[in-house]
Amino acid sequence: MKTQNIKLPLFFWLLMGCLSLQAQNTNQIDSLKNLLKTTNVGSDKTNLYGQISWAYINNSQLEPATNYADSIRLLGENIKDEKEIAYAQFYYGVIARHQGQNSRALEHLNTFINYNALVGDSAKVAHGLFQVGSINARIGNYEPSLKALYRALKIHESREEQSSINFALNSIGVVLRAAKRYDDALEVYQKVLNTDSLNAMVLLNVGNIFLVKNELNKAETNYRRALKIDESRGDIVGMAYDLENLGNLYNVMNRHDEALVYHTRAMKIREGLPDNVDEGVSLRQIGVTHRKLKNYAVSIIQIKCLH
């Protein structure tokens, strides 16, 4: 739906990353670089290179991210360690995904997955599979995406990692929803809620499905539950998504005055965040809502703010 901005797992943009803010990533990078100075050559050093590369990816700074992935590969080549060389392929794959080079990303990631499957490192296989699932979902290849994610889910189930199981299920639900398999998605989300009833992200995604199915009261119930949980935890990023989705819902219900209140609250939160990537989304939704209220002059001003 045009007015809907769905809160997804990191999956569609930074799968496996945290919802960390750019300023926090910068501090993390500085700290990791300091650790490098006292770390000897070996797996500890390559792990630090990987963490720094990942933090740069989260900052959308792909050139330094590539440099640190190169450091992993070169170190592996110098000490003739195939594990480290394969480890670099994971970061090359994620970087290529962010560059929109999907075929190249899949090549790197499949090299990473195949090597770790060969040596029996199932945890790394699962990491690679999540990335493969992400890429295929973004380009509309839902069946290959689901195949990769269900394979990752099976690994986490065998390792009895409940939080990772729930993350996998949530990601599967997102892909099922994108494939318009709404009832299947709801069934998957319910599995998460059976073990984690306070999972705000899943509740929000359930609300999104009910919105698409035009079951608006159920959508509102789930959005409000998600908002209450995020408020209790002080998760302001989550709160902004919850408020935004409630605003979208109230516009669908022709309750535009209420929609404006919620979109404005989301905007105020996003104005105070170091990473304002979603601020434009809030501006746009406020402009759309003013237009629905026939406040055309205000609507035009809001839209101009986007440019």
Q: Roughly what fraction of the amino acids lie in strands?
A: under 5%
Name the overall outline.
globular
Gap from first CA to last CA: 23 Å
Instruction: Look at the structure and give the mean pLDDT.
Output: 88
Radius of gyration: 21 Å
Structural commentary:
This protein is mainly α and 307 residues long. It has helices at residues 11-14, 22-36, 43-58, 62-78, 82-98, 102-119, 122-138, 142-158, 162-178, 182-195, 200-212, 216-233, 236-252, 256-271, 279-292, 296-304. Helix 10 (182-195) runs antiparallel to helix 11, helix 13 runs parallel beside helix 15 and helix 14 (256-271) packs antiparallel against helix 15 (279-292). The relative contact order is 0.08.
Topology readout:
Blueprint: H1 11-14, H2 22-36, H3 43-58, H4 62-78, H5 82-98, H6 102-119, H7 122-138, H8 142-158, H9 162-178, H10 182-195, H11 200-212, H12 216-233, H13 236-252, H14 256-271, H15 279-292, H16 296-304
Attribute tags:
single chain; mainly alpha; disordered N terminus
Write a short abstract of this structure.
The protein has helices at 11-14, 22-36, 43-58, 62-78, 82-98, 102-119, 122-138, 142-158, 162-178, 182-195, 200-212, 216-233, 236-252, 256-271, 279-292, 296-304. By secondary structure, the chain is mainly alpha-helical. It is globular, with a radius of gyration of 21 Å.
